[in-house]
Design goal:
three-stranded antiparallel sheet; 7 helices; 7 strands
Length: about 210
């Protein structure tokens, strides 16, 4: 028996699944959790979330924001005790949709936007007690998102199938805990397939140790 074609393997997989579960074949995926999937005649696959970005813009009323060129302001330092607010400002901060905005951005960076991974991870550290500076940094990301709604990932047929990975870290980057932040990204056919930015749980005593942990 010769090797099965892609279509034959697909039909076999569907038959095996339907024997154990009740399934409904809706054809090729076009929309998965606000992520659009497009296949062209060549077989290239494009993933993007332009409509989802526009929903975020509308939800938080940032249509008047001037788009920014970077996800985070250069040189900014975010700490847990940043800009300790007075009582009036503290009450105002309690009513801002920090968690809601951050939650929407988390799904955006998980699905198609590795360029948001580092800054979203950083702002996630302050969800227990966000301050005015943290909210301003989050609004900066929203403004950046407004100017990059068209960003997408395109996997081209015939590209290099070798898995290429990059790993980096900022040694003792957190000024409060002195922990490092590690980041990695893995690429196939010239496009990202997996990425992560994460605060290291242990304190590295040297750049060698931080790199080893990463």
């Amino acid at each position: 028996m010769g090797a099965l074609s892609i279509l034959e393997r697909e039909l076999l997989a569907k038959a095996q699944l339907s024997s154990s579960y009740e399934i409904k074949d809706l054809g090729e995926a076009k929309l998965i959790l606000e992520m659009h999937v497009i296949r062209n005649v060549l077989g290239d696959i494009t993933l993007f979330q332009q409509a989802y970005c526009k929903q975020i813009i509308k939800c938080f009323n940032i249509g008047g924001y001037v788009p920014t060129s970077t996800p985070l302001s250069p040189g900014i330092t975010l700490l847990c005790n940043n800009c300790l607010d007075n009582a009036h400002d503290a009450n105002k901060i309690k009513n801002i949709p920090y968690h809601e905005a951050l939650g929407l951005l988390i799904w955006l960076q998980v699905a198609t936007r590795p360029n948001l991974s580092f800054v979203v991870n950083m702002l996630s550290r302050f969800t227990h007690n966000p301050r005015k500076l943290h909210w301003n940094a989050l609004k900066h990301i929203l403004a950046y998102t407004k100017g990059t709604t068209h960003y997408r990932v395109i996997y081209k047929i015939g590209g290099n199938l070798d898995l290429i990975g990059y790993v980096n870290f900022d040694f003792a980057g957190c000024r409060e805990s002195r922990h490092s932040t590690k980041s990695n990204i893995f690429i196939i056919v010239g496009e990202p397939v997996s990425w992560e930015s994460k605060h290291q749980e242990t304190m590295a005593l040297s750049t060698v140790e931080a790199e080893y942990i990463a």
